[in-house]
Amino acid sequence: MYALELSSAPGFPSPGTGKLVRVNGSNQLEDIVTGLVVPTGLTTGPDGALYLSNFGAAPAGLGQILRVELAD
Question: Residue 36: how many CA atoms within 13 Å on its side-chain side?
């Protein structure tokens, strides 16, 4: 399972501390992408890649959609 971590810093979300993580079979987290800025959405595309939103709480027009290819 893959999940977004809004911020790995305690308290309010800290820009640049968001992550895309993989939860393995023993419930351990593995960092896949780090340094994200308030990531807010995640989906799998028809090509098998993950697509996630970065700068999810930014003003209109400043957000990003990032494509992440998964290793086999």
Answer: 31
